[in-house]
Amino acid sequence: NTEGSYTCSCKHGYAVSKADPNKCKSTDLCKQLLPCQQICDNTPGGYICSCKPGYAVSTTDATKCEDINECIHRPCEQVCTNLPGSYECSCAPGYAICPHSHDGLQCHDIDECKNNPCEQTCTNTVGSYQCSCESGYVVSPSDPTKCDDVNECLDKENPPCHQTCTNTKGSYECSCRDGYEPNTCDPYTCRDINECERKPCEHSCTNTRGSFTCSCLPGYICRTDDSTKCQSNHIVTPLIPVPAVYYWREDVTYEERFHRSSYFLARTGLPANPFLRGITNPKHHHNYILDNTVYK
């Protein structure tokens, strides 16, 4: 009430109508006050605050919104990550979101072997994979996707070869020392070669382990320059001195005795030799030996 008149006023949330000052109309408090953090809805004489999906009105302040942790309800098959106002599903290592999943929440195993992660052999497992190696190799201790060569020749308890072992990539080779050859039925072992079957000696051959020895018949000895050959063991008697006489030695054949080219001129001053079998000279065809003395 005023002097000679009156004025009308309105409660909170209302305002005097411009068209009729006796009336009140609801005001847009959401526009005037911006009271809500996210969503504001006007009501007669007031307003109500609400929140976007993924948020909820704070229990301590009705104008504020708090993030909802959807992961508490385990919406994902494997891994859930809460985000402001939302969440995200992912998969553990070795898995991926199933492309045929209608909600994108399911995971399926990844076949890592399709990408050839292993140097040699790859075996897919649930959520992972395993590398292995071919015979002669082992998985590298420094890199499980790589393979290291196994040196089989270092096995002292169970050596793979009988004599000589040579390591190769992923395997090994056996060989034999000189005088041996691989067994036909078991190439990892060696057998002695009987070199005497090849007749390497001129006279007699004796096979030994890994080698052979040559020997000669009686009256012969092995040559010093070639032990497989033999030479006469006959001791050549020095030339027998006969004054002005030609003669032949024991190693001269009967036919050669009548050829002067087979005779040797002797010196004087030495006695005759019992091995001297015949004597001649240019003037006489025959001479004789008696009691180690040469007679013309």
From TrEMBL:
Annotated PROSITE patterns: ASX_HYDROXYL (PS00010), EGF_2 (PS01186), EGF_3 (PS50026), EGF_CA (PS01187)
Family annotation (Pfam families): EGF_CA
GO cellular component: extracellular region
Domain EGF-like intervals: 67-99, 109-143, 149-186
Superkingdom per UniProt: Eukaryota
Record keywords, A-Z: Disulfide bond, EGF-like domain, Glycoprotein, Repeat, Secreted, Signal
Subcellular compartments: Secreted
Molecular function per GO: calcium ion binding
Disulfide bond residue pairs: C176-C185
Protein name from the UniProt record: EGF-like domain-containing protein
